[in-house]
Amino acid sequence: MNRRLMLARLSRVAAALALGRLFASPASATAIDAPAGSYPFTLGVASGMPRPDSVVLWTRLAPQPHAPGGGLPELPIKLRWELADDEGFSRRLRSGTVVVQPEHAHSAHVQVDGLPAGAQFYYRFMTADAVSPIGRTRTAPAADADVASLRIALASCQHYEQGSFVAHREIAARDLDFVLFVGDYIYESSNRRYQVRAHEGPPPMTLPEYRARHATYKLDVDLRAAHAAHPWVLTWDDHEVENDYANDRDPLELPPAVFLQRRAAAYQAYFEHMPVAPQMAPQGSAMRIHERYTWGRLAEIWTLDNRQYRDAQACSDRAGGSVVAPCDEMNIASRSMFGAEQERWLAQGLARSTRCWKVLGQGTQISPCGVDTALMRRVHTDGWDGYPKARERLLRAIAEPRLANVLCLGGDVHRHVAAQLRLRANDERSPIVASEFVCSSITSHGLSEAMTALIRSSNPDMLHARSDERGYALIELNPQGAGCDFRATPFPADARARLSTQARFYVEQGQAGVVTA
Ligand SMILES: [Fe+2]
What we know:
- By secondary structure, the chain is an alpha+beta fold.
- The protein is 19% helix and 27% strand.
- The radius of gyration is 22 Å and the shape is globular.
- Fe (ii) ion binds at residues 157, 184, 239, 412, 414, 441, 444.
């Protein structure tokens, strides 16, 4: 082996040791079994990042999730896992033992490689005398496979205090390929006006506090059911750290170096509680969440990060988002939502894609949603309206290679939206280059219907917008077209409620533009 190759290999091993192996390392002699008699799987199980040959299995041991250390001693603990192709585990395909570490909140991220493509599996974890609930998951179809359909539940914005996760109960019961969650998985803040149940404490600032917040969410039976039923594909928005943060800029105006410590704690806790690959573990205050997935020849899916690399919101003295008349600063060409590197990565990936559907999963609404007043248009600076040049570049990256069948899926705005994406927004003469569906929130309260009507009337590209519905969007792609059902219940989402389809839209393959189904 030549010296360069050896050095490269050594540094890869060092990186692997520094990352993954610390929080779920192979079984070692010093690790103990979980203390007998206390059930450690209170936060359930989850799976994610389905690839043609692999999937990630997750759990976290925490017999008392809100107690220090989750109620466990500060020692490494042995954890067994099994994956089978039947629910009775009579045909075990894989099994293994990992050691979960107290410095990673005893969380496990087991990436099972070498699996058959396009297959369904069952999995579970065991330690001492305790056995976890059984989870169901799947691998993506082979990258070159002809696939008849892809069924996604698109969801975001699940403020624990503002309603029941009844939408997740329905998601758990559905026949889906995966859940695409596009942000606001936890909320750091509270709003007493809309409180039907309470967080465990005040806004988290430290790692133990963010861990406790994630535990509160995972203790919800319906959320656990949705995780156990399907693999999840995830990206984040702001509330996983703090409302309206931008890169290292804090709306509370902490100095960037101090805010980055809070962000590091939030990212660490996020990683510890999500079914993401071990190599995604944060490095200090940085964590790469953006990813690319394939679903046979049918679809290529990009999950995008709108928060970590963005420029700060423009046109206001105060940090965070505000509603303003656009100013010159907003139109500075270099201002970015994704950051230059992610922009390039996405544009190159889009231009190269030969798959039928190109799906962008990202935090918020891309189509404009400003409001025309008698004197001027007013826009919200935290959304894509506050980054017009970045939006133009994104749409050009679709229009210039003449890509057909680009579907943008977003969340954040707490309203169901179906919209056209044009190079010149709201100008009927400008061609439609892509289509957009935005899901409402699982629970978080939305704008008034009067305000939503005003937004609608100011933006003809928006075909549909409803802010008074809580729920999710059911997306089904096949070689002929893409359908979207907005599933909803009124606010606040009640534990006994049933969701129903409130509106249905369709995009025909090769015909950019949303139509009513
Ligand atoms: Fe939200």
